[in-house]
Amino acid sequence: MGEGAAESAEILLVEDNPGDVRLVEEAVQGTDSTLHITRDGTEALDFLHRRDEFTDVPRPDIVLLDLNLPQVDGTQILNEIRSDPELEQLRVTVLTSVPEEYAAPELDELGANDFFTKPADPDEFMALVRRVI
């Protein structure tokens, strides 16, 4: 979704770093989008499959996915999304601290729509999130 995309979106953030969560929350403020946050891979899969505490959640329009997660890592989540007929069309943007040259080839194979290494500067990070959503 770039500029001119839908005015509102259901966004699922899969991120265990509280600082990065806060920055994404700030980036989404002032938009018509709704941010849902899961802090580990198991919780993210429960959200996507609408299990347990997430039975009534909306289907996200975009998933902002970190790779380094507790329990189930981001590549496993992406693989599950792409192998599930109900989820395979989800837009998945990887936002991670892993350098692109290490992760991008595998993520292309798994079907990530976009890949970005998280900028160290908080303002650049928030600007990146705004562009993605």
Descriptive tags:
disordered N terminus; single chain; globular; 18% strand; 5 strands; 133 residues; alpha/beta; five-stranded parallel β-sheet
Low-confidence stretches: 1-6
Oligomeric state as shown:
single chain
What is the share of helical residues? 25-40%
Strand content: 15-25%
The major pleated sheet works out as: 5 strands, parallel
Count of strand segments? 5
What is the N-to-C succession of helices and strands?
EHEHEHEHEH
Shape: globular
Structure description:
The protein has 133 residues and is α/β, with parallel strands linked by helices. It is built from 5 helices and 5 strands, in the order E-H-E-H-E-H-E-H-E-H. It has helices spanning 18-28, 41-49, 74-83, 100-110, 122-132; strands at 10-14, 34-38, 62-65, 91-96, 114-117. Helix 1 (18-28) packs across helix 5 and helix 2 runs parallel beside helix 3 (74-83). The protein is globular. The model is unreliable at 1-6 (pLDDT under 50).
Walk me through the topology.
Layout: E1 10-14, H1 18-28, E2 34-38, H2 41-49, E3 62-65, H3 74-83, E4 91-96, H4 100-110, E5 114-117, H5 122-132
Parallel strand pairs: 1-2, 1-3, 3-4, 4-5
Helix pairs in contact: 1-5, 2-3
